[in-house]
Amino acid sequence: MAPINLDGIWKNVKNENLDNFLKALNLNFAVRKMAASQSPVLEISQKGDVFKIITKGLKTFETNFTVGQEYTDRNPLNDKEPSTYLPMWDGDKLRTENKSHPDAIHFVRELIDGQMVQTQTVGTGDKAVVCKRIFAKK
Fold first, then answer.
1. Which helix (H) or strand (E) segment is 32 a member of?
2. SUPFAM superfamilies under this entry (predicted)?
3. Is residue 29 pLDDT above 70, yes or no?
4. pLDDT of 78 higher than 70
5. Is 30 helix (H, G, I), strand (E, B) or coil?
6. Distance CA 119, CA 9 (A)
7. What domains, with CATH codes, occur in the chain?
8. Is pTM, for the whole model, over 0.85?
9. Residue 69 — φ and ψ, nearest 5°?
10. Is the C or the N end of the chain the one with fewer CB within 10 Å?
11. What is the DSSP letter of 69?
12. Could you write out the DSSP letters of every residue in 33-61?
């Protein structure tokens, strides 16, 4: 049984350190401002360890995976180069590691006070840049 249930529709209500995170991805000013002005919505369908996540924002895309199994999906920074990811439970957090590009974006999703907190990290060690995106359930 999964340690947390992320099933539902989640709307982005707050961001922490998003601009610095986007700068670390080498995105230009205009793209960063457009991204910061968006409030993406995540439609998460969870059946135990099986997930379907539809992200609606600047673009809409769908991700399907099973926790504990590697999967290949789009690279958010380069649509022409897919990445391999490994989602895993880390206590009551869902951690998704990018296995293709260790310095690329990694995600941790957890529930804190009824909100879903998505911590995104790019880079490693002292060069890592972390951003938090907080989502409220609709």
1. helix 29-37
2. Lipocalins
3. yes
4. no
5. helix
6. 18
7. 8-137 (2.40.128.20)
8. yes
9. -120, 130
10. N
11. S
12. HHHHH---EEEEEEETTEEEEEEESSSEE
Bridge partners, 111 (sequence order): 116
Q: Smallest Cα–Cα separation from 118: which of 88, 96, 85? A: 96
- Residue 23 sits at φ, ψ, to 5 deg, of -60, -40
**Quick one: tokens of 109?**
């999703």
Query: What's the token pair of residue 32?
Result: 């960063």
The average pLDDT across 86-93 equals: 97
What three-state secondary structure class fits 101? coil
Cα 39 to Cα 8: distance, rounded to the nearest angstrom: 16
Contact yes or no for 74/105 (Cβ under 8 A): no
In the structure, what pLDDT confidence band is assigned to residue 107 with cuts at 50, 70 and 90? very high
> So what's the pLDDT on residue 44?
98
- Backbone φ and ψ of 50, nearest 5°: -100, 125
Work out the average pLDDT over 23-34.
90
pLDDT for res 42: 97
Contacts of 20 (CB under 8 A, 6+ apart): 129, 131
